[in-house]
Amino acid sequence: MMHDMTDALTRVLRLGVALGAIALVGAGCAGSTKAKKEGDVTWPPADDEPRDLTPVTVEPETVVIQNATVMTATGETLESGSILLEDGDIAEISDETIEPPEGAKIVDGEGKFVTPGLIDTHSHIGVYSVPGVQAHADGNEATSPTTPEVDAADSTWPQDPAFGRALAGGVTALQILPGSANLMGGRTVTLEMHPGISSRAMVFEGAPGGMKMACGENPKRVYGSRGRMPSTRMGNHAYLRKIFQDAAELRDTYEDYREKLKNHSEGDKPTPPSRSHALENVISVLEGEILLHVHCYRADDIVRFLELADEFDFEIRSIHHGLEAYKVRDILTKWDISVSTWADWWGYKMEMHDGIPYNAGLISDAGGRAVIHSDSPIGVQRLNQEAAKAFYKAKHAGLDVTVDDALRWITANAAWTLGILDKTGTLEEGKRADVVVWSDHPFSTYAEAEKVWVEGHREFDRSREGEPWSDFEVGQGEGVRR
Amino acid sequence: MKAATETEISSRPWWLALIWLTGAAAIVLTATPAGAQTVIRGGEVMTASGDTFEEGTVVIGADGTIKAVGQADMDLPSMEGEPEVVDASGKVVTPGLVDVGTRLGLAEVWAVGSTRDHDRGGQSRIRAAFRTSDAFNPDSTAIPVTRTGGVTSAVIVPAGGIVAGQSAWIDLKGNQVGHAHVTESTVGMHIQLGPRRARRWGLRSRAAVLEELRELYDNVTYFDEHREDFNRNRIRPMEASRLDLEALVPTAEGELPVVFHVNRADEILRALEFSDEVGLDPIIAGGAEAWKVADRLAERRVPVIVNPHANLPARFSALGARADSAALLAEAGVPVIISTFGTHNVRKLRQLAGNAVRAGLSHEKAIRAVTETPAAAFGQDEGYGSLQAGKRANVVVWSGDPFEMSSRVDAMFIDGESVTTNNRHRELMERYRTLDRRGEPADQRSDDESADSTSGSTSE
User: Is the pLDDT of residue A20 over 50?
Assistant: First the structure.
């Protein structure tokens, strides 16, 4: 929807567009979709569109990458392909040489590989910034087991040096989530890798909102250690049922109020119910207006969350970490829930004990949507290697996976998980120019992202080695920052 | 159930048979135990001792040592009986990898305290007598998992306090008691510098850590010279227990290396200065900013253990962390060692080494950084770290470049014995390869042909 509206993506006022996107998403989350169905009555009222506080003037590049191996993540690879980036979009892809338009730059792709920009569905960059000091611990509002009212965007420090490193790894978009101390950690935000003076300036245009929830060990440990509920898995579940129940009731109250507004007589104006920003965010989950991301490891914990979704009739977009997702991959496939997982991380805690490096491969083999995420400012720098590891592990075990499948684990499937597959995640004409040129096959350990375009802006070029992303890294001495 | 990888045993080529026939007459050997003799032939042999044979041979004797390394067409040393032959054509042969910064066998599940033994605990900041070898669990499921990464040996490292204790050298031979085992119970003394340590132990400055160490080593020297007095209780009060002091004596004599866990450049220099003061043989671990003082480290040939993935200014003592620090150190002549500093993910060692190459380290030096250099730094190079006659036969046959994720371990030998890379992960995968009888034991399933016949259904 936003894609059409912002078709002329000149990005002259980048922030203006981004803020507009926020406003729309924000409006959506406040239960307004429901109201729209009713016709005239809009309640609760949509939040005011925030003013454009930090306008930036930048033009996207017009560039033709020629003669490269173009891995589209749509199932097709062009052995000697060309791709034209224009006005922030992919204007043309061809297996023949594209004639560069007037004034276009030409990138010789001989021996190089081109992929969609990589997407990380699980990052805490900016909410747990480096250096990892207490003052940077902004990811867990661990003062209540459910804090659906908080928003990771309001914690994100755009000067986290880790952003720059992720970009250099070919990442063009990522989702920043609150941590997993809470059963309901708060709103997530999807960012694009343009440097910005505020997190709002980095928001991925048109990306739907998200909600982070968690099950299993973390919430019960954090609150149980304080002698509070939840201290058990049953406590986790009961606590979640309660808040979903509260949200469902508030939704009914709002619905009643809208009915009364429609039908009330003159002089008999109904009193509006008291609002809850927190529960409105939960209602947005129930209504499917924001995407639900659930941190969950064990197969039975996953199934228990599916039961909750069944009971309250909401959808789960992605199970995050999901180390035992392979045990229930058929169900997750049938429910069309993606699994955002690692290539081979395991062993840290009890609920990670059955994590196996075949997880993504088994899910993919079953027709499910596997995603390799990082959850780490180190791992995000080599999502391509992580996908490669999981791919070859699966391949060697005789599972049915292709290179294109595995590329989709870090591009198209990740984009789907964040609700932005119509805009990015594959190399297709009309999509955003989120593009990476690699020095080698991206599944080679030695491959480096050489050039990274984010919506047509060359945000990274290894041959230039320009200014650091982060102000923090300015003036730290000769040779520092690589 | 099939093992994850199996040694490919080729039928012997005729010329090999000839060699044995002609050699047989000359064989007069004392009776050897029925250990396997193995000839690995045809692959690219990276010896990690300077030579690489495009097509080489590695001969493993019945005693578990390497008998010969050379070109593919080399004359084989005389052997009793017929060796097994591994056709390594098109493959790559390296020494078993070594990770000297691990907690393998010291923690089964990190967040489960009862399975965790790397940290002595208690109030003492000085734990020199603490030995990780006393807690090593050879049955850890992480050990067979680690073998999938071609790792055959590891050093298991303590943490906690300022002097954390002694690390041990282990071989990853099996996961049965008596197989994976400690081969050297003390290979290093571990000291943790830096502000985090200091604060944890009630000190408010990194300078206070050095002060403590000076006091401690003053005691060590005094203790060593006045043992009689100590035993008669006629000695001034000591800052550490007798066992701690005793354990530190060999470090002060330069016989046992001291591993300083430290990142900031100036603190690395102080560790070197302190080592000179009291006569230590230092190794730097972590070393995020070691590249800044590479010349000083090179001058003294001080080994530095780095994690090439650690390129973030993750803390104030590591603001200079760089992806290419291994390359910079090597260029300056510093012996570079690569470690995961891990427990469950030590199998990633080859990926880390590959990323060091990506950032500019030569492939050959990267191989050495996970084989020969760590073995030498911890005094184990007589038996470990390279493919040379006389050393233990810890050998890995890779399907390709060990640093590429597309490669895997095709065959692996520890002490000349073929070891499997099968592991709990693989077994879980097989158990859930089909979901028609979800969660039922895999061996029951394989007895049931009707279940087997539907095994393809989940991929549809």
Answer: no
pLDDT at position A454 is 97
Q: Which residue in B70, B16, B12 sits closest to B43, CA to CA?
A: B70
The span from the CA of B222 to the CA of B310, in Å, is: 40
Q: Flag if B324 and A358 touch (Cβ within 8 Å).
A: no
- Can you give the residue ranges of every domain in chain A? 2-237+275-473
In the CATH hierarchy, which fold is given to the domain comprising B1-96+385-422? Answer: Urease, subunit C; domain 1 (2.30.40)
Q: How far is A385 from chain B (nearest CA, A)?
A: 7
Burial of A118 (0-12, 13-18, 19+ CB in 10 A): buried
pLDDT digits (tens, 9 = 90+) for B197-256: 777 778 889 999 999 999 999 999 999 999 999 999 998 988 899 999 999 999 999 999
Q: Is A323 on the interface with B (CB under 8 A)?
A: no
- B97-384 maps to which CATH number? 3.20.20.140
Confidence at residue A11, expressed as pLDDT on a 0 to 100 scale: 35
Please give the pLDDT value at position A191. 97
Instruction: Among A7-21, A106-120, B258-272, name the one with the lowest average pLDDT.
Output: A7-21
Both tokens of A319, joined, read 């199970």
> Binning pLDDT at 50, 70 and 90, where does residue B364 land?
very high
**How far is residue A17's CA from residue A22's CA, in Å, rounded to a whole number?**
9
In whole angstroms, give the CA distance from residue A443 to residue A77.
14
User: Nearest-CA distance from B83 to chain A in Å?
Assistant: 28
Distance CA B282, CA B269 (A): 11
Residue A8: pLDDT band (50, 70, 90) is very low
pLDDT tens string B53-78? 999 999 999 999 999 999 999 999 98
> Which chain B residue's Cα is nearest to A366?
B459
Tokens 């390394």 — which residue? B69
Domain boundaries, given as residue ranges, for chain B: 1-96+385-422, 97-384, 424-459
Helix (H) or strand (E) holding A4: helix A2-5
CB distance A472–B459 less than 8 Å?
A: no
The span from the CA of A83 to the CA of A73, in Å, is 14
Interface test with A, best of B6, B143, B340, B406 (most A CBs within 10 A): B406
A300 versus B421: which is more confidently predicted? A300
| Domain B1-96+385-422 and domain B97-384 have a common topology | no
A371 - beta bridge partners? A340
A257 Rama class: left (phi>0) / alpha (psi -120 to 50) / beta: alpha
What chain A residue is nearest to B289 in terms of C-alpha separation? A480
Contact B320 A480 (CB under 8 A): yes
Q: Is the pLDDT of residue B25 over 60?
A: no
Residue B98: CA count within 13 A, CB half-sphere: 33
Are the beta carbons of A104 and A63 closer than 8 angstroms? yes
Sequence-ordered list of residues with C-beta below 8 angstroms from that of A413, at least 6 positions apart, any chain: A338, A369, A370, A371, A425
Question: What is each CA distance from B75 to B67, B78, B105, in whole angstroms?
Answer: 12, 9, 41
% residues pLDDT > 90 (chain B):
78
pLDDT at residue number B81:
86
**Cα–Cα distance measured from residue A182 to residue A216, given in angstroms and rounded to the nearest whole number:** 10
Pairs of residues, one from chain A and one from chain B, whose beta carbons lie less than 8 Å apart: 138
Q: Which CATH class name applies to A2-237+275-473? A: alpha beta
- Which residues of chain A does B426 touch, with a Cβ-Cβ cutoff of 8 Å? 356, 397
CB contact under 8 A, A382 and B312: no
